[in-house]
Amino acid sequence: QKEVEQNSGPLSVPEGAIASLNCTYSDRGSQSFFWYRQYSGKSPELIMFIYSNGDKEDGRFTAQLNKASQYVSLLIRDSQPSDSATYLCAVNEGGKLIFGQGTELSVKP
Amino acid sequence: GAVVSQHPSWVICKSGTSVKIECRSLDFQATTMFWYRQFPKQSLMLMATSNEGSKATYEQGVEKDKFLINHASLTLSTLTVTSAHPEDSSFYICSARPGDGELFFGEGSRLTVL
Q1: Nearest-CA distance from B109 to chain A in Å?
Q2: Is A79 exposed, middle or buried (0-12, 13-18, 19+ CB in 10 A)?
Q3: A81 C-beta neighbours (distance < 10 Å), count
Q4: A94 and chain B: CB distance < 8 Å anywhere?
Q5: β-pair partners for B20
Q6: Candidates A3, A21, A25, A43, partner chain B, best to mutate (most B CBs within 10 A)
Q7: Chain A residue numbers touching B49 (CB-CB < 8 A)
Q8: Percent over 90 (pLDDT), chain B
Q9: Which of A50, B38, B50, B113 is most buried, most CB within 10 Å of its CB?
Q10: Helices marked H in A1-109 — which ranges?
Q11: Is B107 in Cβ contact with A43 (below 8 Å)?
């Protein structure tokens, strides 16, 4: 059973701080990785995807991938209260997305 | 961007009845759609892959006779929860992608079985 693991949290950070969200995956052959944000009662929305080792930046968001360690992370700079949500890590397995359990982030004003 | 629409957004039904949820790709054709289920405070669990013109592929542990999937056209997949029971109450979400692009999610359908 291929697995995607996340710390369920909640992770609480003050407004303006950097939030760091982590994810590990079990299938060493996985090639593409996704971060989704899900507000309560809503469907997930894509924040970023990453295929290559290293960092990928998009605005306040940076995704980091280390395939050797089977680890992918999401950094949110200058965190805002509106970033408070559950963040889901997902791994592409043959065209299907396998999700982690999500990390609940709370940004305190 | 591409849009995936689900209907109904929420439904309440009596135990033992069947409920149908529709998933439509509004501006692209989708030969494959995915159905997920999410219980409160839990992650999305893939239930099945819906294939246009052929049988759906179900994930391990998902009863194909209970969760009927029909993908009759390139823009519509339906999930029917047959003989629903309270333990089937959940948030059901479909997703689809145009080609090999980004996966888009529907708005989700919240099912409550009394």
Answers
A1: 9
A2: buried
A3: 10
A4: no
A5: B80
A6: A43
A7: 95-96
A8: 79
A9: B50
A10: none
A11: yes
pLDDT bracket for residue A83 (50, 70, 90) = very high
d(CA B39, CA A70): 27
- In this predicted structure, the answer to whether residue B94 has a pLDDT above a threshold of 80 is yes
Is A95 in Cβ contact with B46 (below 8 Å)? no
Q: Which residue of A has its CA nearest to B3?
A: A45
pLDDT of residue A25: 94
- Residue pair A4/A91 in contact (Cβ under 8 Å)? The answer is yes
**Cβ(B60)–Cβ(B46) below 8 Å:** no
Cα B97 to Cα B4: distance, rounded to the nearest angstrom: 9
From the list A24, A27, A34, A99, the residue with the least C-alpha distance to A66 is A24
Q: Give the H/E segment covering residue A65.
A: strand A61-66
- C-alpha B85, offset from chain centre: 17
Of B33, B48, B37, B60, whose CA–CA distance to B111 is shortest?
A: B37
Residue B49, token pair as written in the block: 């892959």
Say if residues A75 and A83 touch (Cβ distance below 8 Å): no
Among all chains, which residue has been given the structure tokens 């059901």? B92
Averaged confidence pLDDT in chain A: 93
- Which residues in chain B are closer than 8 Å to A88, comparing Cβ atoms? 43-44
Q: Sorting pLDDT into bands at 50, 70 and 90, what band is B13?
A: very high
Q: Do A97 and B32 lie within an 8 Å CB cutoff?
A: no
